């Protein structure tokens, strides 16, 4: 019976779960053993017919998971159990299985093969999310809304401006992931302590051939294991991506508050239940799930960093931790991306409510615009700031429009006409370069996508 929610099917996409299924991992290890035998036969270290037999039988169709577990139960070593199970089905050719290498040649290289599949899925999700944000940014680039700092009304922005910032954050993650893959998707065939002593005079060529066969790069100099800074970098990156998704989800949750009600995650009106007791509730539960899972992913960073220190050339302190953190990080981040794609693809935006909310401060949010106008009339910036600070307090305390507070002031009346004030207090006149910045960000993203070979 499953215990963890990933195993129970609550979290995770079918594509990513398949990558980290036990059968797939075992097949990847068998692939490494097959590639090794082939490479060794290519350089004349083992007979061709032996290599052909090993390649033929290195499949979970022949090497049963149940048999590996049966052997492991007896000998208490998972990789040696796999080696023995493979050797059994190979007959006399089994004598050449795992020749000259160590367990973590198989484990680290097989893990890289898994990560190759996993990161391809994650990169595709990031590409998809980037495109959705690009289209939304373009659609809402002129949709005016209140910008907020410290949770308070600040200055007007556009919703597209906010989304363009999110888009570029995803673009940077794509760049980081593609860079990280160069260091993460590496394998090793170097034997105990990494010297390749057991592989003979053709050791370097054997490693080169194995990696070519598997579509990986050699890790370069290693000990008995690939240095765990490589995996730590990946986990840290996945945690950063998770935190970005947490940021998006938190903002949507905030904007879905009853008091704000500008943006809503999708809700299946026909059947979805918001609360077990309150029929009226429409909770942002998808975004809340994303925020909750981000905490878990960030928690995986510490064991990833603590996996870097190793006693001498090898110990087992990394092994147990990374059996959890690598699959969990990939599965959860992929799932979070899947959820965010769902949310943003079906996002509900209330443009009318955005405009209504801007009136809550009766025009006071444009006090900076008035200050700038006064400085152009010759008033010092500091003097204008203090005057407007006092006038905004009067407007708020007496609950009168900011325009009236301005017109009731003798100094303001001398410098600004009523029609000037109307022009200044039009929020569309104080968007600065917001729309232009959105258009630049979209152009930059489209260029990068084209460089990555994407047609849209």
Summary?
This protein has helices at residues 14-19, 22-42, 48-57, 65-75, 78-89, 103-139, 159-184, 203-214, 229-255, 285-299, 301-306, 317-345, 351-358, 367-376, 381-398, 402-407, 410-415, 418-424, 434-451, and strands at 144-149, 152-158, 186-187, 217-218, 263-264, 348-349. The chain has 456 residues and is mainly alpha-helical.
Low-confidence stretches: none
* Rg calc: 30 Å
How would you write the strand order of the largest sheet?
1-2
Known CATH architecture of the domain at 118-187 and 221-360 and 433-456: Up-down Bundle
Mean pLDDT over all positions: 96
* Helix-strand makeup class: mainly alpha
How does the SSE layout of this entry go?
Elements: H1 14-19, H2 22-42, H3 48-57, H4 65-75, H5 78-89, H6 103-139, E1 144-149, E2 152-158, H7 159-184, E3 186-187, H8 203-214, E4 217-218, H9 229-255, E5 263-264, H10 285-299, H11 301-306, H12 317-345, E6 348-349, H13 351-358, H14 367-376, H15 381-398, H16 402-407, H17 410-415, H18 418-424, H19 434-451
Parallel strand pairs: 3-4
Antiparallel strand pairs: 1-2, 5-6
